[in-house]
Write the structure tokens for this entry.
Amino acid sequence: MSLGDDMPAPYSGDLRERVAAAVAAGASARSAAARFGVSVSTAIRWAQRVRAEGHAEARVMGGDHRSRLPAHRAAVVELVAAQPDLTLKEIRGALAGRGISVGLSSLWRFLRAQNITCRSMDLT
């Protein structure tokens, strides 16, 4: 059993198009959702996607979850060395100022994995 076995499969393209077509033909999203057995928010989202993109195809699921931070380790070390009492939000803000976008939990996991703490820095 692989990790992805528990992930739900996307709805078929045919179902997506039929729901969006019903809404485009004048049915309410609520009635189209009930008719085809999907949630109202799903019917709305598919109809909006057809109007905006011309299709209601499923988007790619999953993706690349590797951290981008190892490439910026020097910048993180520099920030923490210069001011060891920075909070995660402050580190994230400083990195954003350098064009590096990162979530707080990703930043925390990176610091933990790299053993970067104010005690581990040589501040002398």
In short: The helical segments are 13-24, 29-36, 40-53, 73-82, 88-97, 104-113. The first helix runs from residue 13 to 24.
